[in-house]
TrEMBL record:
It holds the Pfam family NIR_SIR_ferr. GO terms for biological process: nitrate assimilation. It comes from the Eukaryota. Keywords: 4Fe-4S, Heme, Iron, Iron-sulfur, Metal-binding, Nitrate assimilation, Oxidoreductase. Pathway: Nitrogen metabolism; nitrate reduction (assimilation). PROSITE patterns: NIR_SIR. Its cofactor is siroheme; [4Fe-4S] cluster. This is Ferredoxin--nitrite reductase, chloroplastic. Residues 121-188, 379-443 form the Nitrite/Sulfite reductase ferredoxin-like domain. GO terms for molecular function: 4 iron, 4 sulfur cluster binding; ferredoxin-nitrite reductase activity; heme binding; metal ion binding. Residues 197-355, 460-573 form the Nitrite/sulphite reductase 4Fe-4S domain.
């Protein structure tokens, strides 16, 4: 692909003027340490893929020892299901016909993930989850109504989830409906393309971008541009659909680090350099069953104009050189480890338009000593007379009627826009202050999606769990709510506690960044019988002093979690037992 640069108007970047939030500014030092440089044979830097007939294919000489998913990609290009209309023919087949041949079976179980469709063979045979692309988590009332109309027809099998990447996933979809659903998505400005498997996932940004009085930069234009580039404006972009593994990206626009940069493969951290606005770069953050790592500095700075060329260069480096054997060792950090950060950096630099990268800036714009703000509830926007209202969506699960009602509220009280967050909540922006009282009195906010949930509920996150996901070992969403309710009866807490649930070691629920994390596993009860359980993690932190949590207690039966969590909250988080409270009154 040809080199290019994209121009942005330079954003105005100013220190916060809010007297109630004044904090000392801290300049980040230029990184002085990085993984040791390693000796890399020149042959190792030969690209392992080549372009054939518009698609990138793994070269024959690099196919020894590749994993089964790579073989499936070689046998049939997944993007042809979309770009050459293969989905229309596939949707005409019955499930029995599909399962009769390996190619079509692989189509529905693997290749359709390139179209954002995940067959729930284990728990919902013949039904699919559909994951969208929603850059920066911004959506409209019209889009929300359309998604509601899709899931409503599937009755009890249809529902929607807000994900930990500011995204929608809808459930219950059947294959014959897919071509029509894809057309409907296009009509409302949505796509599900390239949202699963070895593709770039939803670009994450500040959920209150453009309305945040304290923001450093509006992340929406950058997230939109990256998403449009990656999918070629929803037409499909084969240049980045044959990555060795999935790949996450975020643009940081706030001191609060709502975007969780340290767990992304590529994170843009705002920084100025010689009077120019741009970003320092972090690379390599990821979670997997066998290894979890925080992103590390690339020792690189790019101007706002070069956000897209840098993204392209990092992706091409990963695509060209990444390992394609054991799937547990194919995320980008494994490549960085193998090459060493300086060789990896040089490979990125040679793929930049000017064949070079500037070193990192010392003028980091993110304040290190910053108290993370709560976006739930009512908050003034930078636009005079307007506020945004953050709503708690319990474990991110919605039904069709919920979505229709949220769309109505966005139209009636706001500007027809909704914002999704990585904590699985939803924000209604642009509400006139004169309409706030009426909005807060709406039944949906009183009965379902409170702007003022309890302290423990507001920090609760849960993955899909085994209700729908075939990889999950335990049920998560209902159990997370039940255990939290039990804990609230046992103890009282005075500060926010983030509790995350994930059904399996793939850790979609991001338990390692939680104060308390629960990872599904099998355990044994008091009678030594196997039961659903959880490994408990403790000590995860987000923000500028981020830290991944560590295993605290293994294989606790789920039925025993309530009292144990209550003990943890008392011992580590200053909670007070309810019976003690009552006894002191």
């Amino acid at each position: 692909m040809s080199s290019f640069s994209v121009r942005f108007l330079a954003p105005q970047v100013l220190p916060s003027t809010s007297s109630s939030r004044t904090k000392p500014w801290v300049l980040a030092a230029v990184p002085t340490t990085a993984p040791s440089s390693v000796e890399v044979d020149a042959g190792r830097l030969e690209p392992r893929v080549e372009e054939r007939d518009g698609y990138f294919i793994l070269k024959e000489k690099f196919r020894e020892g590749i994993n089964p998913q790579e073989k499936i990609k070689i046998e049939k290009e997944p993007m042809k299901l979309f770009m050459e209309k293969g989905i229309e023919e596939l949707a005409k087949l019955s499930m029995e016909e599909i399962d009769n041949t390996k190619t079509t079976k692989d189509d529905i179980d693997v290749r359709l993930k390139w179209l954002g469709l995940f067959h729930r063979r284990k728990h919902q045979y013949g039904r699919f989850m559909m994951r969208l692309k929603l850059p920066n988590g911004v959506t409209t009332s019209a889009q929300t109504r359309y998604l509601a109309s899709v899931i409503r027809k599937y009755g009890k099998d249809g529902c929607a989830d807000v994900t930990t990447r500011q995204n929608w996933q809808i459930r219950g979809v059947v294959l014959p409906d897919v071509p029509e659903i894809i057309k409907g998505l296009e009509e409302v400005g949505l796509t599900s393309l390239q949202s699963g498997m070895d593709n770039v996932r939803n670009p994450v940004g500040n959920p209150i971008a453009g309305i945040d009085p304290e923001e450093i930069v509006d992340t929406r234009p950058y997230c939109n541009l990256i998403s449009q580039f990656i999918t070629a404006n929803s037409r499909g972009n084969p240049s980045f659909t044959n990555l060795p593994r999935k790949w996450n990206v975020c643009i940081v626009g706030t001191h609060d680090l709502y975007e969780h940069p340290h767990i992304n493969d590529l994170a843009y951290m705002p920084a100025t350099k010689d009077g120019r606005f741009g970003f320092n770069i972090l690379v390599g953050g990821f979670f997997s069953p066998k290894r979890c790592e925080e992103a590390i500095p690339l020792d690189a700075w790019v101007s706002g104009d070069d956000v897209l060329p840098l993204c392209k260069a990092v992706l091409e480096t990963f695509r060209d050189l990444g390992f394609r054997g054991n799937r547990q060792k194919t995320r980008m950090m494994w490549l960085i480890d193998e090459l060493g950060i300086e060789v990896f950096r040089s490979e990125v630099a040679k793929r930049m338009p000017q064949k070079e990268l500037e070193r990192a800036s010392s003028e980091d714009l993110v304040q290190k000593q910053w108290e993370r703000r709560d976006y739930l509830g009512v908050h003034p926007q930078k636009q005079e007379g307007l506020s945004y209202v953050g709503l708690h969506i319990p474990v991110g699960r919605l039904q069709a009627d919920d979505m229709d009602e949220l769309a109505r509220l966005a139209d009636t009280y706001g500007s027809g826009e909704l914002r999704l967050t990585v904590e699985q909540n939803i924000i209604i922006p642009n509400v006139e202050n004169s309409k706030l009282e009426a909005l807060l009195n709406e039944p949906l906010l009183k009965d379902r999606f409170s702007p003022e949930p309890s302290i423990l509920m507001k920090g609760l996150v849960a993955c899909t769990g085994n209700q729908f996901c075939g990889q999950a070992i335990i049920e998560t969403k209902a159990r997370a709510l039940k255990v939290t309710e039990e804990v609230e009866r046992l103890v009282s807490v005075t500060r926010p506690i983030r509790m995350h649930w994930t059904g399996c070691p793939n850790t979609c629920g991001q338990v390692q960044v939680a104060d308390i994390g629960f990872m599904g596993c099998m355990a044994r009860d008091e009678n030594k019988k196997p039961v659903e359980g959880a490994d408990i993690f403790l000590g995860g932190r987000i923000g500028s002093d981020s830290h991944l949590g560590e295993l605290y207690k293994k294989a606790v039966p789920c039925k025993d979690l309530g009292p144990i969590v209550a003990d943890i909250l008392v011992e580590h988080f200053g909670a007070v037992r309810r019976e003690r409270e009552e006894g002191e009154e």
